[in-house]
Amino acid sequence: MDIRELHRTVDTADLDLWYGSFQALRRVTVSIRQGLITAMIGPSGCGKTTLLRCFNRMNERYGNARIAGHVRILGRDVYDPDVSLIELRKRVGMVFQRPNPLPLSVYDNVAFGLRVHTPRARRSRRTEAEAVETALAEVGLLDAVQGRLRRKGTELQLEQRQKLCIARLLPLKPEILLMDEPCSALDARGTEAVEELLRRLRGRYTIIIVTHNMAQARRISDECVFMLSGEMVEHSETAAMFVNPKDRRTEEYIEGRYG
Amino acid sequence: MGGALKQTLQTLRRIASGLSERTIVALIHLCGISAIVFVFGIFFFVFREGSPFLRDIFDFRSFFLSEEWHPTSVVNRRYGILALLAGTGSVTVMAMLVAIPFGLGTAVFLSQFCGRRTREALKIMVELLAAVPSVVWGFIGLMVMNPLIVRLTGAPIGLNVLNAGIVVGLMSAPIIVSIAEDAIRAVPDTYVEAAEALGATRWQLVYRVVLPAAKSGLLAAVLLGVGRAVGETMAVLMATGHSIHIPFTAEAPFFHPLESVRTLTATIAAELGEAPRLDTGPGGIFPVEARHYQSLFVIGMALFAITFLISVTADLIVKGIRRKA
Q1: Greatest CA separation found in chain B?
Q2: pLDDT band at B22 (very low <50, low <70, confident <90, very high)
Q3: Residue-range definition of the domain harbouring residue A21
Q4: For residue B147, what pLDDT is reported?
Q5: What sign results for the dihedral spanned by CA atoms B14, B20, B23, B28?
Q6: What are the DSSP calls for A108-129, one per residue?
Q7: A146: number of CA atoms within 13 Å, CB side?
Q8: Side by side, which strands form the sheet with A22-33?
Q9: Which of B36, B68, B160, B205 is buried most deeply by CB count within 10 Å?
Q10: What confidence tens digit (pLDDT) does each residue in A131-170 have?
Q11: Interior/surface letters A196-210, b for 16+ CB within 10 angstroms, e for the rest
């Protein structure tokens, strides 16, 4: 096996997706490298969020989504009939556009994943508390919520809520983090804080971030995927794409001619 | 000739349209305030009929804390409603033991576990269940449940708390289903999405996220069911056995579901027809026979107070949800 193959965590091959009769993805073939931050950019409705939601099969929530082609995550086709959806979502975490902590306490929010995935008999209060603390420390939220772990997660500030949503993924030790415009609801300071956090997480997790904000893609990502009308137009290193785009459509988008 | 008729018709129409605008607005206003008028009217009437009793004989201890209800006795008239309260209470508790699991279970199934077509079909069935007249429920209690309970439990009589509780429980379930389903469907989809993305199974999603998030709505649903059970009359009149009796004993503090009871509502319904409404005699004093009728209205006030408290509590809880959302 090629050494490069080993570094691929997410691969799609000729991926098509329809919502009813509308085709949202057209023959998308892309491979995402491990441990890097990959940004997916493109104008509204280009299919970047749809593509992201294929990686943890969240598109299935919409009853009318139909799919053809392959999505391989960590070496397995996720649309194989014997793939466990629950196991997949344990290894591939997701952060949403609007911070959506569960209506539980801060502590329970972070412990939620562990409780869902560990049978009652194998749960221990100590390991759970440690995992929660580690996760909160990792996202830099521990000092802010220390002593207030029993407060509702939905009552935190917007930026803290989004950090909490990232923290709740970590106790499950996911390999891939999917982020769907995680900063679009935040102000400039909140955006900066989350970007800083992403830089800290880089290397340990494969991060795929959908963003509207080209400057953000440029600041934080290692590689960039540019999509347009359901097609993958260009996938290259971020620095290269912004300086010297290969495709004319990419160039026009980056220059702000449309989108 | 024809032209003149046409003109008259047009004038009439103009007058009518100007008038109807104002009439309709007035009618709508009238409908709007009619609910208030009716509630106060009912309260006023009930209070007026019961007030002589409140003024002359009522005393908290002997009314609420005595189980002696002998309103027509010649030598020993007593107006104690403790046994009737216990009857209403025990039937309501029994009814909720049936209605809460059935109602909430159905609501969870409808909103989370079944497809759209099953849901539509089931909802129609639930509405049909709510449309069954209460006398039909009473008939089922009397003719179907009664022999069944005797056969299954060996109780001497099948008209008892268990019978009435099951019947009233089934009657209260539809309202619990519809309010609880609304509450569950009002849980924001972002919560559901978040839990699904974390790999929660359907059931984990329901009991760890959806039910806690819908908690207050579910409580309101249960309270409305309780209100329905407390106020139910005809079915309990037919299914409880109508015997004035407290289904508790000192040895077994939990109520005995196989004993016959009588409820507040059934007492009013059964006795009001026989209780004479008499005016004051010489000296402005009511004859002693007039008190039975009046006491039934005091029971009415007590019922009114109980159901009013329950609805207000439910309403406050529902408002609480809206404020948070």
Answers
A1: 96
A2: confident
A3: 3-255
A4: 95
A5: negative
A6: HHHHHHHHHHS-GGG--HHHHH
A7: 6
A8: A22-33, A8-19, A65-73, A76-77
A9: B160
A10: 999 999 999 899 888 888 999 998 899 999 999 999 999 9
A11: ebbeeebeebbbbbb
Q: Is A148 on the interface with B (CB under 8 A)?
A: no
Residues of A in contact with B196 (CB under 8 A): 58, 61, 89
Residue in B194, B204, B208 closest to A96 by CB: B194
**Mutation test of the interface with chain B: which of A88, A116, A173, choosing the one with the most B Cβ atoms within 10 A?**
A116
CA-wise closest residue to A167 among A157, A181, A155, A153: A153
Q: How far is CA B58 from the centre of its chain?
A: 26
Greater confidence (B292 vs B12) lies with B292
Amino acid type, B169 = G
Angle of helix A158-167 relative to helix A106-117, nearest 10 degrees, comes to: 20
CA dist B252 → A48, B97, B248, B278 (Å): 67, 19, 7, 43
DSSP state at residue B293? H
Q: Is B242 helix (H, G, I), strand (E, B) or coil?
A: coil
List A40's β-bridge partners, or say none. A210, A225
Q: What are the C-alpha distances in Å from B200 to residues A53, A90, A234, B195? A: 17, 9, 35, 6
Q: Where do the domains of chain B lie?
A: 2-56, 69-324
Residue-wise pLDDT tens digits, B80-121: 999 999 999 999 999 999 999 999 999 999 998 988 899 999
Compute φ and ψ for A181, nearest 5 degrees: 45, 60
Does A57 lie at the interface with B, CB-CB under 8 angstroms?
Answer: no
For residue A7, the domain's CATH number is: 3.40.50.300
pLDDT at A3 over 50: no
Helix (H, G, I), strand (E, B) or coil at A160: helix
Mean pLDDT of chain B: 91
Cα–Cα distance for residue pair A58/B34, rounded to 1 Å = 51
Of A104, A116, A165, the CB nearest to B199: A116
- Both tokens assigned to B318: 């529902």
Number of structural domains found in chain A: 1
pLDDT of residue A123: 85
pLDDT per position as a tens digit, A164-213: 999 999 999 999 999 999 999 899 999 999 999 999 999 899 999 999 88
Q: Note the maximum CA span of chain A.
A: 58
Helices B82-108 and B161-185: angle between axes, nearest 10 degrees: 40
The ipTM of this complex is 0.89
**What's the rounded Cα separation, in Å, for the pair A70 and A68?**
7
| Residue A20 clears pLDDT 80, i.e. is over it | yes
- Partner A contacted by B200 (CB < 8 A): yes
Calculate what percentage of chain A has a pLDDT beyond 70: 97
Residues A90-94: what's their mean pLDDT? 94
CB-CB under 8 Å, A61 with B193: yes
Nearest to B190 among A90, A96, A104 (CB): A96
The CATH superfamily holding the domain B69-324 is MetI-like (1.10.3720.10)
Q: Is residue A112 within 8 angstroms of chain B, CB to CB?
A: yes
Q: Give the DSSP H/E element, type plus range, for residue A142.
A: helix A142-145
Mean pLDDT of B67-78: 91
Helix (H) or strand (E) holding B238: helix B234-239
